[in-house]
Structure formats: C-alpha cells, structure tokens
Design brief:
By secondary structure, the protein is an all-alpha fold. The protein is built from 6 helices and 2 strands. It has a two-stranded antiparallel sheet with strand order 1-2. β1 (6-7) and β2 (13-14) form a beta hairpin.
C-alpha cells in the first residue's frame, strides 16, 4: 500500500488506493467530457492521480479532496486541448506529402467537399482543423 495521503472523515488513515477507487469514476467522467475520447480521457485521469501522488497533499476534508481532484483533472484536460490546438499546422504545409494509401477514400470528407463553399469551409475548419467558431467567423 502506498503511504497515507489523507485522513478520512472519521479521521482514519486513507491510502492512495482508497482515494483512487473512491474518485476514479467521477474523474474519468469529467475527463471524458472534455477530451471526447477514451484514450485521452484515460491519460488525463492517470496524470491527475500521478499529481496526487507527487504532491502528497493533506486534505482538510472529503470535499476539499474531491474539489482538488476535479480542478486538477479539468486543468489537465484544458492544457492538453490547448496544446493540441497550438500544434495545428496550416494545410498548405502538407501539400507535398505523399499519401500513405492513395486508394483509401474518406466518404465523409468527400460528402463535405460537395457542399456549397460557405458550408464546406466552415465544417472543414471546425471539424478537421480544430478552429473555434469565433476563429472561423474572423476568417470568413
């Protein structure tokens, strides 16, 4: 068992495993709501509990513990999402790359490209490039 991190409501010692089991589902749901996929949500949950281990925080009560875990998870998710957006590249930078499988079709993308220009551009920029609606409004 990993060292005691907090005393429970009845002032009994509580191990990391107990905290993890008690709060995993809540933290996972919050992370999934931000990240929108299982793998990234699991990574954010893991990072949240690693921070708990590294900080060795003594919580004032159960509510303080839950609030800290939730806030930490949300901040991790937001930072990961910001990081992803910062790494978006302009599509022109990829113009000279060879296609891995030139015969593979993306029917959804083909359907989107058949839309009128004003709809096509907005959908492409939002879903494929990751721009926010405010950024798209400024561009168009």
């Amino acid at each position: 068992m990993i060292e005691i991190l907090q005393r429970g409501e009845d002032n009994a010692p509580q191990s990391f495993e107990e905290i993890y089991e008690q709060h995993f589902n809540t933290i996972y749901k919050v992370c999934f709501s931000y990240m929108k996929n299982i793998a990234d949500a699991e990574d954010a949950v893991a990072e949240t509990f690693v921070k708990l281990l590294k900080k060795k925080i003594i919580f004032q009560n159960a509510e303080h513990k839950k609030a800290w875990l939730l806030r930490t998870a949300i901040n991790i998710c937001k930072n990961n999402l910001k990081h992803w957006r910062r790494n978006n590249k302009d599509i022109d930078e990829y113009g000279n790359l060879e296609m891995i499988n030139p015969f593979q079709k993306n029917e959804v993308l083909e359907t989107i490209m058949c839309l009128p220009k004003r709809y096509k551009d907005v959908i492409y920029l939002y879903y494929y490039e990751g721009y926010t609606t405010e950024e798209i409004a400024q561009m168009t």
